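FORM 7B: Structural annotation worksheet

SECTION A. Query
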Amino acid sequence: MKRAINLDEHLGIMVKQVKKVAEMLWNKGWAEANAGNLSIDITENFIFSDKKKDIPKTDIMLRQEGYTNLGNRIFLITGSGCRFRDIAEHPESGMCIVLISQDGSAYGISEAYGFNKDIRPTSELSTHLLLHDYFRKTGLKDKVVIHTHPTELVALSQIKRLWNEKLLNSKLHGMLPEVKVLIPKGAGLVDYALPGSEKLAESTLEKAIKSHKVIIWQKHGCLAVSDTPFGAFDIIDILNKGAQVLLACLNAGETPEGLNETELMELKQAFNLPY
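SECTION B. Predicted structure
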């Protein structure tokens, strides 16, 4: 008799957050069909059983350079072609447990807890692993990467006159105080690149290195990093609220006033913001 799946035995709160975030992304319309992807470093929260099938062979090759800081790390990653609306109900139906080889050059997929070994990780795997490799290398606490398609942020990225990092962040920071408080550095902007490409992954890493916790992919969507799924979701949610307010004003034929420099400085001082 197949044993019941009980991810909470080892992953606890993290998996509950994944299910809730998947539900919220779908309900907001940011995860149409199989859009979007998510990864979590679960190495410290996961224990393989003694069953041979649970500890996979790491024989699926990664990019030539490998990921030298991810040796023997374990990730929970959404599968290619899988849907967040399904993951909200049953994570094992659309995610896979990935074990990276000791030298970071390959990976294997585990059948632990009833996960399907035939599910392959998201096509954006390069971006996810590059970021996790950077987190490990630098000692950052970030463990979660979420990519999704917030409607208003995608729309703003289509407006050529606003596609300038300094200008767009100034506009978004001015829409409501929480954008400045929760995302003081603002968003990094990455010019359009083929989804799933190494170019997109490398360009995203460049923005992460510059301390951006959220990155807008032109004509595509955005990506956020944090130490929990809720943390990454919140960053995207508040940034998109800024985009909603900006577009609402523009759609009304008005140029929004925005918070002025004095008001922004007051926020910086009151909340001890680094930027």
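SECTION C. Observations
The beta strands are 37-41, 60-61, 74-78, 95-100, 106-110, 144-148, 188-190, 214-217, 221-226. Residues 229-251 form the longest helix (23 residues).

SECTION D. Sign-off
Analyst initials: ____
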